[in-house]
Design a protein that fits this description.
single chain, Multidrug efflux transporter AcrB transmembrane fold, Alpha-Beta Plaits, 4-stranded antiparallel sheet, 13 helices, elongated, transmembrane helix, SSD, transmembrane
Length: 435
């Protein structure tokens, strides 16, 4: 596996333009498929074998007009100026408004009469009508939503106060604020860690590509397989997480290989062969775990697990193929030469640890190990040196004829550990000879 990924990394680095083009084609292909062949994602949850599911199935069979899974809207109509809603003029305006609601969509099964259903407030100023659709809210089109909005507006033009609620109304625009905040925090953390804007941005770029491909594929398959909307939410969450994580492994290993002296191409290949192996192993583990949700035999969990497993698999492929190619484009900027300036500016406490006042400085004026200081204990020229070679020669047989032919011991140098003129050794001879 490591050798295979090493070759992939080297090839992707050399042919980086081709790799980027291939991923762009993949993204474009799934994007076109999502735009043309996708269907609306359902929000219905089916739990086969449960009492609730059997009750819903029975209601749908016995009362098809009042589909248990159908969309619904609750329309509230109020007379102006504290008038009674059952007055002749207000009653006529109410009936005309509800008639417009009935004609607003071909999927409306029933619009209840508030007077027949006794859905009028105790004060007599407000009436309540229930609108039932024959299809789920996910099958309603923009035309259905616009028709209902126009029908409600017609009631306001007649002088009534008309409001509505329910899942048949136009859904609000989806907000991706959480994803944006997550990406921003990840960018700040990576920038502080790497000290390089390029190195911090590469994992984010690959994560975005992986999530884009995964979401487009899920959207394209939502129509044929009736995927639940929760599947795309889970796939997005895991795709962002593992996309950044897996790419981070390879970038960090690449920087280590460059610091060890390898050139850019070899460093990318080695990073893909070592860190890439861990990425593949971790990805396969997550894919198997998510696919295991199918064992529960619930369609919603099976769809969520398989969609998320597909997003993780795409993240692995992007990390081991697109990341080496992007490293080839980034060049030396991934190494992070500006990290020292970043640390000195924003983290002065860490920069002080390597400042000029370091206690281990060998050139400082108060260094305890200085060989040239005036109070050095090992100084060969100091007046108090215990092993000074210029001091008085010890008396005794050590200076007799037996040592006449021995060379004169050399003076000790500063910092030397041993000396051939050791006083301890010379003074031990007389006692041994007398013994």
């Amino acid at each position: 596996m490591a050798t295979f990924l090493h070759r992939i990394g080297r090839t992707a680095f050399r042919r980086r333009w081709l790799v980027v083009l291939l991923w762009a084609l993949v993204l474009g292909a799934v994007g076109v498929a999502a735009a043309n062949g996708s269907g609306p994602q359902t929000t219905n949850v089916t739990l086969p074998g449960t009492e609730a599911q059997r009750a819903n199935d029975l209601l749908e069979k016995q009362f098809p007009a009042a589909n248990a899974d159908g969309a619904n809207a609750r329309v509230v109509l109020r007379a102006p100026g504290g008038e009674k809603i059952d007055s002749a003029d207000n009653r006529a305006a109410l009936k005309a408004t509800l008639a417009d609601v009935q004609k607003s969509s071909a999927h409306i099964a029933k619009v209840s009469d508030p007077f027949a259903a006794k859905a009028v407030s105790a004060t007599g100023t407000t009436a309540y009508s229930q609108v039932t659709y024959s299809v789920p809210d996910t099958e309603l089109t923009d035309r259905d939503h616009s028709g209902l909005d126009k029908a409600l507006e017609s009631g306001r033009d007649r002088g009534l106060t008309v409001e509505a609620s329910g899942n048949a109304l136009r859904p609000p625009e989806e907000s991706h604020t959480a994803e944006v905040i997550g990406f921003a925090l990840a960018a700040v953390i990576l920038l502080i860690t790497f000290g390089s804007l390029v190195a911090a941005g590469l994992p984010l770029v690959t994560a975005l590509v992986g999530v884009a491909v995964s979401m487009a594929a899920i959207t394209a398959l939502s129509g044929p397989f009736e995927l639940n909307s929760n599947a795309s939410v889970l796939a997005t969450m895991l795709g962002i997480a593992v996309g950044i994580d897996y790419a981070l492994f390879i970038v960090s290993r690449y920087r280590s290989e460059r610091a060890a002296g390898y050139d850019a191409e070899e460093a990318a290949a080695r990073a893909n062969g070592t860190a890439g192996s861990a990425v593949v192993f971790a990805g396969l583990t997550v894919v198997i775990a998510l696919a295991g949700l199918a064992v529960v035999n619930l369609s919603i969990l099976t769809a969520m697990g398989l969609a998320a497993a597909g997003a993780v698999a795409v993240a692995v492929l992007v990390a081991v193929t697109l990341m080496p190619a992007l490293l080839g484009f980034a060049g030396e900027r991934v190494v992070g030469r500006g990290r020292g300036r970043f640390v000195r500016r924003f983290l002065p406490g860490r920069a002080a640890a390597s400042g000029p006042t370091s206690a281990a400085s060998a050139t400082g004026p108060t260094s305890a190990a200085s060989a040239t200081g005036p109070t050095s204990a090992a100084s060969a020229t100091g007046p108090t040196s215990a092993a000074s070679a210029t001091g008085p020669t010890p008396t005794g047989p050590a200076t007799g004829p037996a040592r006449a032919g021995s060379p004169r011991p050399a003076s000790r140098t500063a910092g030397s550990r041993t000396s051939s003129a050791s006083p301890r050794r010379s003074w031990s001879w007389p006692s041994s000879r007398s013994a």
